Amino acid sequence: MASWCRWRSTRSAWRTRWKRRGCANGPPRPPRRSGHAVNLKPRRHEEPEINVVSLIDVVLLLVVFFILSSRFSDEGRLRVHLPHASAVPAEKVSGEPLVVSVTQQGGYLVNGHELINSSPETLRAALLKEAGTNRGIRVTMRADARATHQSVITAMDVLGRLGFSEVNIATVKEETAGKP
């Protein structure tokens, strides 16, 4: 080892470098390994990070899974039983208008004449008497705002079965709604 130090010491730059480090005999040697590797380098302190990209991927997959696997509930929907009606198409013929009114109690008036009962057969007979064979006549339905929906649909169904094609529903403007 002395020969190596002597050979190295001939070069003045290396000699001063080794002397500054406190080693006159040459560069420091690594310690002997006794089965373990010793890391003499100081550890760098890195801030811990959360990988947000993979977190977003997992959350998106969970959202898609729950959307596809969930059952949509029908609790918020209204259960409505709609009235039944069937209509027959008819040919158009013009004539005097026919007015069918539905009262609050569900009774019917044809051209201002009140019917004896509210059965569809009575309404059918009154309409046949007023219109005759003219099925293209324009019919105006006037229903009380408090009349049942089924009464209005029954009148429209009778009109449709008889072949009346121009059925209009009369309304009242907002300003005159409360006045008789």
Describe this structure in words.
There is one protein chain. This protein has 180 residues and is an alpha/beta fold. Among the domains are: 1-26, no CATH class; 98-173, Nucleotidyltransferase, domain 5 (2-Layer Sandwich). It has five helices and five strands; from the N terminus they run αααβββαβαβ. The protein has helices at residues 2-9, 12-20, 52-69, 120-131, 149-162, and strands at residues 98-102, 108-110, 113-114, 138-143, 166-169. It has a five-stranded mixed beta sheet, with helices on one face. A hairpin with a 2-residue loop joins β2 and β3. α4 packs across α5 (149-162). The longest helix is centred in the middle third of the chain and has 18 residues, at 52-69. The chain is rod-shaped. The model is unreliable at 3-9 and 89-93 (pLDDT under 50).
Tag the structure with descriptive keywords.
rod-shaped; 5 helices; 180 residues; single chain; alpha/beta; disordered N terminus; Nucleotidyltransferase, domain 5; five-stranded mixed β-sheet; 11% strand
